[in-house]
Amino acid sequence: MHQILITNDDGIESPALNALETSLASIGAVTVVAPDRERSATSHGITLGQPVCYRELAPNRFSVEGTPADCVIAALLRIFQRPPSLVISGVNRGSNLGSDILYSGTVAAAFEATLQRIPSIAVSAHSQADFASAAEVAARIAGQVLEFGLPPDVILNVNYPLVWNGEFRLTCQGRNAAEPLTDYEALALGYVSISPLQINRTAHMHFDHFTGWTDQLGAVLRDGA
Predict the structure, then answer these.
(1) What is the pLDDT of residue 90?
(2) Residue 176 has pLDDT above 60, yes or no
(3) Is the peptide bond before 64 cis (omega within 30 degrees of 0)?
(4) Angle between helices 15-24 and 131-148 (to 10 degrees)
(5) Is 3-224 a CATH 3.40.1210.10 domain?
(6) Which element (helix H / strand E) includes 92?
(7) CB pairs under 8 A, 24+ apart, for 166-173?
């Protein structure tokens, strides 16, 4: 049976986390490792210079005195005896679209799992959406990932709309609601948005812009000497 780790940034008491746990029970053995309180907008912060304490609240259910990324690290280093097959972060109460992704503890937890070479999904929903339905969608996507895998260093950022039209759309990270083919547009039209995001943030398409900079900077230093 697949071992699945779930976490979030809304805290261990979030009803949306419970909905996700329930929806995943049919496809794997679920362990919950989540912050002991609200940790929204902590991005990829981790705790340094002090212990990260955790406690078992019930079988396979742990609360952590730390960030979402701390939860993933604690789970992999201290709680799991072997790496899980999949990590899912969510269901977040509120969308994580566009630039919000940079601040999201939900997305950061998924990225931390990917840094540890474990396939991962971040799942968020409109704050007034049906979290049980969003969790069921997350389980369907999880099944696909368990069957087909993900490319190295890539996560899926999934967003569930207020009212779902029953369809999915592959999207890019947007900047505003007016851009086509973005996560913003998909949610506005009632789609579940699935955005593949990657760890490597190198701006490869702009390398040509900077090609001569290193020589010029070196020349300035030589002339100044």
Answers:
(1) 95
(2) yes
(3) no
(4) 40
(5) yes
(6) strand 86-93
(7) 167/191, 167/192, 168/192, 168/194, 169/193, 169/194, 170/194, 170/195, 170/196, 171/195, 173/97, 173/98, 173/101, 173/197
- Banded model confidence at residue 211, pLDDT cuts 50, 70, 90: confident
- Which residues have CB under 8 Å from 63's CB, separation 6+? 12, 34, 35, 36, 54, 55, 57
What separation, in Å, do the N-terminal and C-terminal C-alpha atoms of the chain show? 66
How many residues are listed for the chain in this entry? 225
Q: How confident is the model at residue 220 (pLDDT cuts 50, 70, 90)?
A: low
3-state DSSP call for residue 110?
Answer: helix
**Would you kindly state where each structural domain of the chain is located, as residue ranges?**
3-224
- Reported as a single tens digit per residue, the pLDDT across 20-60 is 999 999 999 999 999 999 899 888 989 898 888 999 999 99
Q: What is the pTM of this model?
A: 0.93
